[in-house]
Amino acid sequence: MTGHKVLLIGAGGVGTIVAYGIHLAGNSELSIVVRRDFAKVNDVGYNIDSIDYGIVEGWKPENIYPSVAAAASSGTVYQYVIITTKNLPDIAKVEELAEPVITPGVTVVVLIQNGFDLCRPFFDKYPKNVVISGITYVGSHNSGGSVHQTQPDRSFFGSGRNPYIPEDLQESKVKEFLSIYSNGRNKPVYITNEREYRYKKLIYNAAMNTSCALAGVDTGRLELSGALDAVAIPAMREIIAIAKADGINLPNDCINNAIHGDDGDWFEPSMLIDVKKGNPIELEVILGNVLRVAEELNVKTPCLSLLYGLLKAVQFRLRENQGHFTLPIDRPISERFYK
Amino acid sequence: MTGHKVLLIGAGGVGTIVAYGIHLAGNSELSIVVRRDFAKVNDVGYNIDSIDYGIVEGWKPENIYPSVAAAASSGTVYQYVIITTKNLPDIAKVEELAEPVITPGVTVVVLIQNGFDLCRPFFDKYPKNVVISGITYVGSHNSGGSVHQTQPDRSFFGSGRNPYIPEDLQESKVKEFLSIYSNGRNKPVYITNEREYRYKKLIYNAAMNTSCALAGVDTGRLELSGALDAVAIPAMREIIAIAKADGINLPNDCINNAIHGDDGDWFEPSMLIDVKKGNPIELEVILGNVLRVAEELNVKTPCLSLLYGLLKAVQFRLRENQGHFTLPIDRPISERFYK
């Protein structure tokens, strides 16, 4: 097998569908990093039940590695490194996780992750590398190597706009990546405005996903309890204001699209599911990053900032429960004094 | 036994200590309503382990009733009805619960409950009755008739200021109640500014208690995670602003007193405990009432309103889980449309 050397890190629900899509396209030598399910996947491959690709049994890519270090030690210079892990910079920075497999000035990084302003840390660390920003609406879940894709792979790819290298080079890499990924059954779309797509997705994720996670309710109960109107809609308007200050006029129907996206379903968004499972939440990329941009642009964000403050305490609890730190038995007495 | 006919409704952790204090004072014929623990208490009485009163075994008041209706059917005209239940107007209104035992123009109602602006519904329903507002800092827990009082009974009693009857009559009833309650070991205090005490207690309850309940953390973790500064302190400042517009200047140290009240303890406030136990929260009296006053006084409350909106969704979930209502299997599709 010849072709582009492609490594995908994080072959869970979304990652496996991306990997299989690249495999079907047939233009790459595909490797993947699978951590939790390595033993099983390495042994029997993936079983996929996909709305795009049908039933696939025992699928394996060319190479399967249990870690990024193992993928690096093969000696391969990867032309593309696709990252489909969760993005949790307050726990492990993605740009550091991928460091062993990124060749400066060569490797194109493709970030298919939730959140906003994800490329910035890569430009700081790898100023000569192209980073492609991938926004996906695929619905897919992985359970120990059995992947169930329930919603078609609708994905949008654009240049992350590295300020240190020519934009036309970056655009050409986006187009090349689409040729690696398109297989006639998925429909990845080339875009030149990834930031607008990121903002649009934040309308849902920064406002509804966060509110549901805090209140412990799905989007239907958020609406029926009045919290959609009292909390999420004002938060959405703050995202629209930040985007506007950032030079992006979000379309008029963006709020409606967000609130009607789950019509008919008592839908539990990702952050709520993480909280219920006791997993860390993607708080920094969903709220922290956009709040830093709001501050740079002098946009007031009373709702989003309060949601962020409360979710920081939730994250603190989730991280403590996962053993990331241990507190003393006696609570330290604070020196703080307020007037 | 002669003396004032006193009925106490809600003999849990706080209520039992109040009842026992009245018993020791010896100026009343005391009846209590005990619902959940009636059978046991009626049989063997209370076992009390009290920082104020020591060990007391098998204590019973003159009369024990399993319901307000039973207390009413005794035919007694109660001179005092003390209410120490939780106050959950969105589930059951206290002024309706107590109706069978309130004689218009006669019965003095004593509300020893958490929250703010508790007397207003009584004045609307019983315009000729005195209502005494009791603010207590007692720490006491009841477990099936075994009561453990860990913090001394510090209580403050003032007129609720019924606008329909003379204030001097109300003040004299407060003083009379203190003579019924004081026993030389507890120290109930006569106050003429109950609203200020209610506001002071809201500094803690409307800001820290609510934030802890939403984030699922104790007050220590609220502080360490940054949410005390990001959420609770701004919410406290809104309470101070509402009080000020209401003509009450809260003391300079009120924020410090609130945040240092739990020094050294990983303390879980009441609303957090309710959420963890799946019990409804005292949301309306802790936040709803003060927000209605803020609106009347045109005070902006971005933090408190957002906390309220999120906690409405939490209350919705808690009430649904307790079977207060049932939702359809398919989520109804909303007609709402936002621009």
UniProtKB/TrEMBL annotation, chains A, B:
One of its GO terms (biological process) is pantothenate biosynthetic process. It catalyses: (R)-pantoate + NADP(+) = 2-dehydropantoate + NADPH + H(+). It is an enzyme of class 1 (oxidoreductase). Its EC number is 1.1.1.169. Residues 195-315 form the Ketopantoate reductase C-terminal domain. InterPro entries: 6-PGluconate_DH-like_C_sf (IPR008927), 6PGD_dom2 (IPR013328), ApbA (IPR003710), KPA_reductase (IPR013752), KPR-Related (IPR051402), KPR_N (IPR013332), NAD(P)-bd_dom_sf (IPR036291). GO terms for cellular component: cytoplasm. It holds the Pfam family ApbA_C. The keyword DNA-binding does not apply. Keywords: NADP, Oxidoreductase. Residues 6-160 form the Ketopantoate reductase N-terminal domain. SUPFAM superfamilies: 6-phosphogluconate dehydrogenase C-terminal domain-like, NAD(P)-binding Rossmann-fold domains. One of its GO terms (molecular function) is 2-dehydropantoate 2-reductase activity. Catalyzes the NADPH-dependent reduction of ketopantoate into pantoic acid. Belongs to the ketopantoate reductase family. This is 2-dehydropantoate 2-reductase. The lineage of its organism: Eukaryota, Fungi, Dikarya, Ascomycota, Saccharomycotina.
